[in-house]
Amino acid sequence: MKTKTFFSIKIITIFSFIFLLNSCTDLNEVVLDEKLGTDATDPAGALAAAYDRLGDGTFVDHGAIFAMQEYTTDEAILPTRGSDWGDGGKWRDMHEFTWTSSNAIIVDNWNLLTNGITRSLTAIKSAQESTFPEKALFLAESKALLAYYTYTTLDLYGQAPSRDPLNVDAPLQILKAETEIDKLITDVEALIPNLADIGTQRTHHGRFTKQAAYAFLSTMYLNRAVFKDRYNAASSFNFNEPAVTGSTGTDMDRVIYYTSLLIDSGKYSLESDFFKNFARDNDNGKELIFAISQKIDYIRNGSNSFAYVCMERNQRTSAANRGTNAACTTPEFYATWDGNHDDPRFEQHYQYADGTWFMNDGTDVSVPATDIIPKSSPALPWFHFNRGIQAGLQYGPILLPSGSLEMIGNRIKVSPLVMEKSTGTRMNFTPSLTFADPTKSVFAQNEINQGARVFKYEFDPEGGNGNSNVDIPLFRLGGIYAMRAEAYFRKGNGGLAMIDLNKLRTSRKRESLFGSATGKALTSLDSQQLYKELGFELYWELQRRPQSIRFGKFDLPGTAKSASQPFRRVFPIPQTVIDQKFFKQNQGYN
């Protein structure tokens, strides 16, 4: 059970982007508890509001930052599936690289991120103007969140708004990625003395600690070269440029320095069960450095989006739950796993307490009905689908007209599944995607089964299809090893890079069905293999777009995507923002 609430928050005050454009003082209050009374300017409430923006859709919903960081890459695609997921073409735009400044995903995410910036500025002001024992800590966390929201905005849009939080009459500032990245790095480095070590001062992985700062700095140094030279047509980024003034060595040296602080700290360890990082009970996860703490509390329920979005509508974890048949991975990404299907990160079968394995291969007859959906009344049997990348014919329980799952005695019957909205179509998650027009990701109704699915995050059935107790990692130890491996490689030390990658491979174990075998070690490493390894460890974790830009893959043609120009490495500023005359549009979008 999750007990790590950040603060006892009664009211969250939401400032919209308009606050950055003028001195508007109208507040739109979102009441998160029936008991009112906490002043919205209270430092704890203001900081909680800034944290809340991380999890209130922004980094936990497939249609938010995920859509921009994953659907634009070889890892993920959300095609139009017959009568579903048309939505004006906004999903297809992401993968086909046809987005404009009016695309709803681009507009909505700008609003979410700039709202995060505004909430952080409010938290800074509230902490700065207060006198209380934790002032320095709250101020450091507020500034760290401001840097995180600003960095993400600069990563995606190339520009970001800012304003002096202590001066309501201060003019709006327009930050540019190529010049602001160095200041962000030095600002976050300066915060470290005032941030808490994780586990002290009531901190946990849901708060911005020193360790979160180390991970964040590693990320910024790893991507600094791209920020400074985004439109480099040949993707010849200078990753070994001297680090920011005041630091020693190159950018990659700093990545190695900060990742090593985390790896050598003894505070974290790799999970032998890779999928435990994304399980319903991962709130005590050994790898989580900075994560969005989620819980189903009927105040701000956690999001189940990353699990729900791939599962088909006829895949039911209980009689009250189903998937939505939206996203899948691409043939290109699936092919990177050729020869690696025995990697513990690729797939995992579920075993019930009585020893029954769900094989999902046509041999299953039934599974126990003894697992019960938490808090369900009447008690509902819980069916567990396998985890990881799921391809081929699918099996599971069938929902009867009576509203219950089909049973064999006191066990859940396992049957071949068909598509809910195309009942003559067998549920067959084909790794291939065969679009009638190869340039458009559109399926006919009888083709909506296609695409291997990603079941990396556990589907939490407790609070309906949309809610979850699964904490969403933003930085975890596996990603830290991956970053250090890339930094070693870019410095020309493939041997040390391979040691880190093999640590990831061999620390993970398969389920006991396969003798708890560890992953196999690499014997050689080149740039292509390194890119694959990053995908093996970090797929579906909002990392692929920055990875693909660093490796020169982002502009390449692929499934339902033609070769693209470097200007697409950043998204356009929303037209509604351009119309306010503060921002100039990014190149290529005029």
Quick description:
With 590 residues, this protein is an alpha+beta fold. The chain contains 16 helices and 22 strands.
Q: Describe the biggest sheet?
A: 3 strands, antiparallel
Helix content: 25-40%
Topology, number of strands: 22
The number of helical segments is 16
Widest sheet: strand ordering: 7-11-21
The residue ranges in which pLDDT falls below 50 over 5 or more consecutive positions are 1-40
Shape summary:
globular
Please state roughly what percent of the residues sit in beta strands, choosing from under 5%, 5-15%, 15-25%, 25-35%, 35-45% or over 45%: 5-15%
Structural class: alpha+beta
What is the mean predicted local confidence, pLDDT? 93
Distance between the terminal alpha carbons, to the nearest Å?
A: 51 Å
Instruction: Work out the oligomeric state of the chains in this entry.
Output: single chain
Rg: 24 Å
Domain RagB/SusD: 335-565
Pfam families: SusD_RagB
Protein name: RagB/SusD family nutrient uptake outer membrane protein
Family: Belongs to the SusD family.
Describe the structure.
This protein is α+β, with helices and mostly antiparallel strands and 590 residues long. Helices cover 32% and strands 11% of the residues. The chain contains 16 helices and 22 strands. A three-stranded antiparallel sheet has the order 7-11-21, with no helix packed on it. A three-stranded antiparallel sheet has the order 10-15-14, with no helix packed on it. A hairpin with a 2-residue loop joins strand 14 and strand 15. The protein is globular, with a radius of gyration of 24 Å. The termini are far apart. The N terminus is likely disordered. Pfam families: SusD_RagB. This is RagB/SusD family nutrient uptake outer membrane protein. It is found in: Cell outer membrane.
